[in-house]
């Protein structure tokens, strides 16, 4: 029975991934606003209802990694090793993301987002949700700054590093430089001992 469930979940994940890849290709080739969900379904060889079974909106087709990205951000805080500080965990997660920013796929993706007001708006709402989740994780952490404002500021700065790295010629160097600045600014608010 477990193997059946596993196979079904793998098939669903593969279908979701296929639809998202087809959608991104069509959006990049023809423009986001010029491509409808029926076009995506036809090109992906699935029913429109299948598209909606996997994605809540047209924008969600573009940001299909939304939940995964939020899980990685929060996981960097809550799943870090006992000897890693809060800031080091956030830095490591940003460095991991910076690797993707070096790829042509990232450049194409962000050019698509910038080309559409709907996608820019969705990205802003997504970022706000990620910030709330990250603030909650930071505030619950033993190394959390004492003030709620400092927890919010740290989450916001950590997310800003992603944007800075995305636009930088050297994303890794941008992450390192940004976190060096953040670390100095939060030195009095956050312990370096790690727990």
Question: What does this protein look like?
Answer:
This protein is an all-alpha fold. It folds into two domains: 2-56, Arc Repressor Mutant, subunit A, CATH 1.10.10; 66-186, Tetracycline Repressor, domain 2 (Orthogonal Bundle). Helices cover 76% and strands 0% of the residues. It contains ten helices and no strands. The chain has helices at 2-30, 37-44, 48-54, 58-62, 66-78, 86-101, 104-114, 117-139, 148-167, 171-186. Helix 1 crosses helix 2 (37-44). The protein is globular and about 55 Å long. The termini are far apart. The relative contact order is 0.11. The mean pLDDT is 90. This is Transcriptional regulator, TetR family. It holds the Pfam family TetR_N. Residues 13-73 form the HTH tetR-type domain.
Total domains, how many? Answer: 2
- How would you spell out the order of helices and strands? HHHHHHHHHH
Largest sheet, in brief, is: none
Number of strands: 0
Beta strand %: under 5%
Uncertain stretches: none
Count of helical stretches: 10
Task: Provide the helix percentage.
Answer: over 70%
Arithmetic mean of pLDDT: 90
Protein name: Transcriptional regulator, TetR family
DNA-binding region: 36-55
Pfam families: TetR_N (PF00440)
Domain HTH tetR-type: 13-73
Question: Which properties best describe this structure?
Answer:
195 residues; mainly alpha; Arc Repressor Mutant, subunit A; Tetracycline Repressor, domain 2; 2 domains; globular
């Amino acid at each position: 029975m477990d193997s059946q469930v596993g196979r079904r979940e793998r098939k669903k994940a593969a279908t979701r991934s296929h639809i998202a890849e087809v959608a991104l290709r069509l959006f990049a080739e023809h423009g986001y606003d010029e491509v409808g969900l029926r076009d995506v379904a036809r090109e992906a060889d699935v029913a429109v209802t299948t598209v909606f079974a996997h994605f809540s909106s047209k924008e969600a087709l573009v940001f299909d990694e939304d939940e995964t990205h939020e899980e990685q951000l929060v996981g960097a805080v809550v799943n870090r090793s006992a000897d890693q500080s809060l800031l080091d965990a956030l830095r490591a997660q940003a460095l991991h993301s910076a690797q993707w920013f070096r790829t042509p796929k990232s450049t194409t993706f962000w050019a698509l987002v910038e080309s559409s007001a709907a996608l820019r708006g969705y990205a802003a709402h997504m970022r706000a949700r990620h910030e709330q989740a990250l603030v909650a994780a930071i505030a619950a952490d033993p190394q959390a700054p004492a003030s709620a404002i400092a927890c919010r500021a740290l989450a916001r700065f950590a997310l800003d590093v992603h944007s800075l790295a995305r636009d930088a010629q050297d994303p890794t160097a941008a992450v390192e430089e940004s976190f060096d600045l953040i670390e100095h600014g939060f030195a009095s608010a956050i312990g370096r001992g790690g727990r």
